[in-house]
Amino acid sequence: MSAMREDEEGGQPLLSLRCVVKTFSNRVTGVGGVDLALRDGDFLTLLGPSGCGKSTVLRMIAGLLSPTAGSLDWRQGMPDIGFVFQEPTLLPWASVFDNVWLPLRLRGVSRGHAGPAVAQALELVRLSGFEAAVPRELSGGMKMRVSIARALATKPRLLLMDEPFAALDEINRFRLNGDLLDLWREQSLTVVFVTHSVFESVFLSSRIAVMTGRPGRIHREIAVDAPFPRDEAFRTSPPYAALCRDVSHVLGEAMNAAAGDARVRA
Question: N or C of the chain: less Cβ packing under 10 Å?
């Protein structure tokens, strides 16, 4: 795989997941021993089949779930985190402004004092002028932009995204992929992104962690060496196609490894 290399960056990571296991109350083990390092400025994608524990790992990073075993070790304590879910989860009765204001409101920031932060977040996602609109007046892509603006309103250091573009049509998905990369670079964010799309993972990521099937673990980490910024010319280029083939091959290895483990357990 000449277009890729195994990640060998040094330095103290922002977050280290060490032998992290998550078993649910129904005794199903969703995550079976994940070791993973997250560094400042990463655009790290968790790639794997549905049900492999990607979202579970993301929720443990966010503090929404606690690991059954293992540890999540933050270098300097948990930073401010923005979370974008698969569905926009907007308040249907509230305006765009009020939806973006919500996390600030929960921190005790008044509507008036929140104005500049909300305006800046909406400008970042190219929705200035839609402050008074309500969700039913917005397209699917615009709703997701509002969800991203809401996550950015608190100026997080770390942005967690759980398959945010999975339900969108291809045109909106491609456009939002490009806009997300612009935000990541301009705002100096660290991003952890969940997807089961090889094509999306290669376009977006500086690093891909390929997961096996449940119970999920990291089969392999891959650094994507294609330079930024990335645009439509990259998406239609031979290097992009080669990267996608290589990552698809690694994903196939991961799925075969999980199937082999299941046969051994049986």
Answer: C
CB-hemisphere CA count at 13 Å for 228? 20
Query: 247 vs 45, 66, 193, 221, CA distance in Å?
Result: 12, 30, 16, 10
Output the six-digit token pair for 230. Answer: 């990335």
- pTM equals 0.91
CB 13 within 8 Å of CB 39: yes
56-73: burial string, b at 16+ Cβ within 10 Å, e else: bbbbbbbeebebeebebe
Element (H, E) at 185: helix 170-186
- Closest-CA residue to 72 (of 165, 158, 185): 158
pLDDT number for residue 3 = 34
DSSP 8-state symbol, 226: P
Give the domain ranges of the chain: 4-79+157-265, 92-156
pLDDT in tens, 90-145: 999 999 999 999 999 999 999 999 999 999 999 999 999 999 999 999 999 999 99
Instruction: Report residues of the chain scoring pLDDT below 50.
Output: 1-9, 263-264, 266
DSSP string over 12-67: --SEEEEEEEEE-TTS-EEEEEEEEEE-TT-EEEEE--TTSSHHHHHHHHHTSS--
In which region does residue 27 sit, left (phi positive, over 0), alpha (psi from -120 to 50) or beta (all else)?
A: left
| Tokens at 99, concatenated | 């939806």
CB 184 within 8 A of CB 114: no
CATH architecture of 4-79+157-265: 3-Layer(aba) Sandwich (3.40)
Digit-coded pLDDT (tens) for 224-238: 999 999 999 999 999
